[in-house]
Amino acid sequence: MAGVSGFDTIVMVDWSARSAPSPAKPTKDAIFIGIARDGFLASSYQRTRHAAMRFLTGLLDGELRAGRRVLAGFDFPFGYPRGFARAVTGSDDPLTLWAHLAEVIEDDDRNRNNRFDVAEDFNRLFPGVGPFWGCPPTRETEVLPAKGSLRHGHGMAERRVVERELPRAQPCWKLFTTGSVGSQVLLGLPHLHALRVHYGDALSVSPFQPADTPIVLAEIYPGLIDAAIKRRVRDGEILDRAQVRLVARAFSRLPAAHLATLLQEGDAEEGWILGLGAENALIAGLD
């Protein structure tokens, strides 16, 4: 039977765009997965994206067999500013863009990937220079600049609507160094597309589809309640682990009707950050 939130299990994922496996000892800026079910919390550390997806698929398979409903949140954008999907695929449908990314992105089981090559190819579709930027100095070209200030005339908005409402959230064009959420998107959406293929009609993506399936995927941003989370980090606990643990708890304690409403909110092309505007309710569920 579904819990207070309308879901039996809440899974929250802190993603990573590392180009090599994370250390064997848990460390920051790696993949952490938080799980809340029946009032109990657990977390998992994963060294590669492929290992994380094997873990998640095993978890979701088990939840489906048990008849439990799952909300799975991932901390990277599910869409791009308006017009990007059409420029790349000819369609405004963000899920068509997910499928295209799954075709062009290479990401092996050691985290080696071609994200800079793909971003450069995308930049060639636009006038001027950009919109993607950020790479190691040895990878910089006239088409893919290392600095955002070198971009011009590409015609894309810098931020989605949701990021304009939440300025501290990073835009999706930045691919390198601190806050490079753009690389997380390029290396995250192909894996989410694989989940869509694997689970078919049992899975939906908020806010692009009705969130009435056994598995629902949603975009999250732990920074929504960052200060409240930091006050609750255990001694010696890695912040990333604390974030997924506590965000899973917060969403598990939202009333079902409230969470159902939140899952319907957002832009059908650009996506949305689940919980924006409900920060007080989420903080109330942390303890």
Structural account:
- The chain has 287 residues and is an alpha/beta fold.
- The chain has two domains: 9-77 and 198-284; 84-183, no CATH class.
- Helix content is 35%, strand content 11%.
- The chain contains ten helices and six strands; from the N terminus they run E-E-E-H-E-H-H-H-H-H-E-E-H-H-H-H.
- It has helices at 49-65, 84-89, 94-104, 115-123, 161-165, 181-199, 226-230, 239-252, 256-264, 279-284, and strands at residues 9-14, 31-37, 40-46, 70-74, 203-205, 215-219.
- It has a six-stranded mixed sheet, with helices on both faces.
- Helix 1 (49-65) runs parallel beside helix 6 (181-199) and helix 3 packs across helix 6.
- The longest helix is centred in the middle third of the chain and has 19 residues, at 181-199.
- It is globular, with a radius of gyration of 18 Å.
- The mean pLDDT is 97.
* Broad shape: globular
Biggest pleated-sheet summary: 6 strands, mixed
Quick check: average pLDDT?
97
Rg, rounded, reads 18 Å
Based on helices, strands and strand pairing, what is the structural class? Answer: alpha/beta
Helix content: 25-40%
**Count of all domains:** 2
Number of strands: 6
Strand order of the largest sheet: 3-2-1-4-6-5
Number of continuous helical runs: 10
Termini, distance in Å?
A: 23 Å
Q: Helices and strands, in N-to-C order? A: EEEHEHHHHHEEHHHH
Percent of residues in beta strands? 5-15%
Low-confidence stretches: none
Oligomeric state of the chains present here: single chain
